[in-house]
Amino acid sequence: MTLTAHVDLKSFEKNIATIVESVAPARVWVAVKSHAYGHGMVELADNAISAGAAGLAVLDVPAALTLRSHGITTTLFAWLHGTDTDFESAIDAGIDLGVSTRAQLEQIARVGRGARVHLKIDTGLHRNGFPASEWKDVCELAAGYQRDGDIVVAGVWTHLADANPESDDEALYRFDDALDIARSSGLNPEFVHAAASPTALRNPRARYNLVRVGIAAYGISPFDESDGRNLGLTPVLTLSGTVLSSTDGIATVEGGWFTGIPQVSGDGAWVSVDGEPASIVAVDALTTSIRSDAGVGTVVTFIGGDGPTAELWAEWTGTIGDEILTGIPAAVRRVYER
Ligand SMILES: *Cc1c(COP(=O)(O)O)cnc(C)c1O
After folding, report:
1. For residue range 37-77, what is the model confidence (pLDDT) as tens digits?
2. Among 210, 204, 80, 113, CA closest to 156
3. pTM of full prediction above 0.85
4. Ligand 1 pocket by C-beta < 6 Å: which residues?
5. Can you tell me the distance from the alpha carbon of 307 to that of 239, in angstroms, rounded to the nearest whole number?
6. For ligand 1, mutation pick of 23, 80, 212, 322 (most atoms within 8 Å of CB)
7. Interatomic CA distance for residues 111 and 99, integer angstroms
């Protein structure tokens, strides 16, 4: 067996169903940016929808068009645009477009055809979105375009930092103000959305009528203090390889930092050999040496399954689970199972 990322579709669907139930009556869009956090965007799209997601948040227009070309007909939301973004193709393909600048709004209105836009207000994260100072003018401009039939303002949204409940609340007050201004400008958005995984799971007030959930759908906790299983979620991805050689109690396993195994140093880091932890001696470019007598061909689990969770790897390497998962390159074989 070559190094393989097993993607368990059943766990993915179960996680989504759990999230859908816990945030109801708010609806759920599953975030599938960066190839569904390394799991495979095209492969998982249908499963997200059949598990109860109302749409997919894809990041950019090219990714949305890729999904459309694979026959995915559900709501697709793209919000990160460059100066070269092809809004015309996006509008033809019925993509819901997040809008963060006046230039984007004008470009989209010029294409027209009832383009569906979601106006984004910056509520403190400074990661795009209209500043509060421009918001009223933008809402009035958008309302004019909507009256002319060029656009439909389908949503008003923001993105909350994964900071802490207090700063979330502050951002939510700003968001409510922005929502009032939008409504008094004559807008009546179908969707109001602010929360990603952490706020969707912990703060009912942040759910409005739609949440955009990424990492939790893949069974990884958005919180430092707990892992996915504590939240009733199951990690979807398991990365495993086999022992290539074994001498003097050191086994060399396929899989290294070229193929998504983070470099760890010092004591404590381990992998699973037949369910038993074996400590990592060194992670090299293509192989990892571990302290084990396991023979050639023995399966070793690096991430997920009975091995360490992505959260644990994140703890060892000072990052977050998202980075561990998206760090597994596309060249590593994915196998989809249920
Ligand atoms: C990535 C992303 C999400 C999902 O975030 P998670 O914390 O992984 O749930 C939601 N909304 C936007 C705008 C994002 O960029």
Report:
1. 999 999 999 999 999 999 999 999 999 999 999 999 999 99
2. 210
3. yes
4. 31, 33, 57, 79, 159, 196-197, 212-216, 222
5. 9
6. 212
7. 14
